[in-house]
Amino acid sequence: MRMLRYCLHIVVFVIVVWPAVVFSQAVSIEGTFQGKNVYVRNPIVDDGFGFCATKVTVNGEIMPGGLTESTFEVNFSNFNLAINDPVFIVIEHNQGCKPKFINPEVLLPKSTYTLLSMQIEPSGKMQWKTKGEDGKLPFIIEQFRWDKWVVVGEVMGKGTAGVNAYEFKLSPHSGTNKVRVVQVDHSGSKRPSKTTSFRSTSPKVVKSPTKVKDMIYFSSNGKPTETKYEIFDAYGNLVKKGFGSSVNCSRLLSGAYYINFDNITEKFLKN
Questions:
Q1: Per-residue 3-state assignment (H helix, E strand, C coil) for 205-244
Q2: 3-state helix, strand, coil in the chain (%, to 5)
Q3: Which of 1, 118, 213, 268 is the one with CA 20 to 30 A from 84?
Q4: In contact, 141 and 151? CB cutoff 8 Å
Q5: Which of 81, 107, 133 finishes a domain?
Q6: CATH number of the CATH domain containing 265
Q7: What is the DSSP string of 51-71?
Q8: pLDDT by residue (tens digit) across 170-227?
Q9: What b/e string do you get for 206-228 counting C-beta neighbours within 10 Å, with b at 16 or more?
Q10: pTM for the complete prediction?
């Protein structure tokens, strides 16, 4: 008899609890705390009685306060967060409706850095200092060659407001090099630094042969030399890119091509 009552309890538990498990729904968002609160649009449920959101947690902690408004605020002052702390918000809600985050961008870092200094040695060792960073964003290193800015590397920003120091080793081309760092935040806009120029000690690179059958070779002072390169067809389509002392062109169709290497652009014919 006791076993029967136990089984009935299990059946009742499954009947009562299981639907809640099956039909519970949630929306979530994550980012880093940037000093501003998140607002949520909270629609009325389909039957017209009550609002959609049933529970909000921030980093696993339940948000205090009611959810009985069409718009409510996730107030981070209740969670003892510091700037750049990770944030993970989960909103559980009723079926048939869905809360919407009104300003999710406030959890994304902004590019606010100020470049204090940048030095680059002829060997390509690059050092720069910043201040005023507001959240971790990568610094993209760009080098001006072939009449355009080319991405050559990336260093993750520290994201703190004080003075931050960074290093990067780039591959200089011959002659005068122009370099800058760039950040792109959630707005999609590029924030480039001022350009820093330096003269490299790297010798000029030459390409051979003029008419190509299978291979292209790069050399300096009669010795094989590695260089960054790009090859475009006559219609401007990029067909090859890389870094090395030679390029295998055996699979290219016959015709005219343009090749960028060192700080030079040349035309060549593929036989």
A1: CEEECCEECCEEEEEECCEECCEEEEEEECCCCEEEEEEE
A2: 10, 50, 40
A3: 118
A4: yes
A5: 107
A6: 2.60.40
A7: BSEEEEEETTEEPPS---SSE
A8: 999 999 999 999 999 988 889 999 999 999 989 999 999 989 999 999 999 999 999 9
A9: bbeeeebeeebebbbeeeebebb
A10: 0.73
What domain range is 137 assigned to? Answer: 114-199
Total Cβ atoms within 10 A of residue 267: 10
The pLDDT tens digits of the residues spanning 95-142 come to 989 999 999 999 998 899 999 999 999 999 999 999 999 888 999 999
The tokens of 251 are what?
Answer: 């699979």
What total of structural domains would you count in the chain?
Answer: 3
Burial of residue 138 (number of CB atoms within 10 Å: 0-12, 13-18, 19+): middle
Do 243 and 227 belong to one domain? Answer: yes
If you search the block for the tokens 């510091």, which residue do you land on? 82
Domain membership of residue 233 (yes or no) is: yes
